[in-house]
Amino acid sequence: MAAEEKEFGLGEGPAVKASVSLRAGNIRAVRERVGARGFSAYVDAAVERQIERDLLEEALQANEDASGPIPQTLRDEAADLFRSVKAAPELQEGAEWTGHEAG
């Protein structure tokens, strides 16, 4: 049985060659970021992240279907928290991580 025919979980199993078509601009951007040797690993990681996002979205939708929509006040609070974390100085490009320890 070939490796691609076996059942592996997300992020598991050996690398298997696959032919995909990508837009030229995306190919250029990936190569500029990781070089030719890191191309497959970069695309593989991107696919894995997208599947994880899809699964999360499905879980959120199932939760909303079972429990009703998330109140707008909680959505706003979550959006504010996300923006504040994203804007934290230690997360800005070029910033050095100071190692905030949990106490």
Automatic annotation (TrEMBL):
Name assigned to this protein: Uncharacterized protein
